[in-house]
Give the backbone structure.
Amino acid sequence: MADDPSRQAGKEGCLVPTLSIITAAYAPSAAYLRETIDSVRAQELPQGWDLEWVVQEDGIAPSLAHHFAQVKCARYEASGAQLGIAATRNLALSRATGDLIQVLDSDDVLLPGALRALIPKFEENRIHWAVGQADDLMQDGSRVAWKSALPYGLVSPGTVNRWAEENGGNWPIHCAGLMLRAISLRAIGGWVGLPGDEDIAMFAALSEITKGYNLDGVTWLYRQHPQQITRSRATRHLSEDCRRLALQRIKAVQLSGLDFGSSRQFDFDLDVHLVKVGPAAKQSGDA
């Protein structure tokens, strides 16, 4: 181990790039967590890459720590408060040291080879996001396949959002399976503080100004079950408002001229994520 415990030294003693899986966990909806854990354990990365799994548990009564105690790559923490999925993911993002971020919900499943298939796309292309196709995983164990609404391969900036605008604010990319450049995700503020569709509102801004990749191949399973947060009445009736904000964000990005810069080189930088933070001044009495 190097001084930073999340960075592994390669065979020649050099630090290697890392992929961080980010999972926002919640005990009342963790019935399928074991399968999610098994799917992460089965992942293989391209040569020269390291893996960390940053798990943040939401809720006032955390109880999931023991599930990750024997998972070597897992870095678990509990919030100790009911914060919601956007804030929980962002707290996990604050602890992530990876150059790439893979989103994974605690009830979904990564298929073997998923990470190995997506990571090289970032090395081969100047892209900021990538996603593989997802089958719905039904309660009886069967799978339902869905045809991609977008062509496979490179996706130009704005393409995803034009489709969404023409289809009632429904997005053709499933954001729960995204792989993202960490620096890009942080630059747009992480996940948006909404009660639902927080990933769509994030992705609307990112995909408007960056290229992505739509992989031709099923890399993960999206579980369908009655306890899904997206099925709850608390979030479903707010979906139109949340997706409206995502559409508004597209317009704001366009009008502001927000741009990462066509000449900016987004190589993997092993130091960019290493920052130090001390006690807040308002807590220490200095302010």
User: Anything to note?
Assistant: DSSP finds ten helices and ten strands in the chain. The radius of gyration is 19 Å.
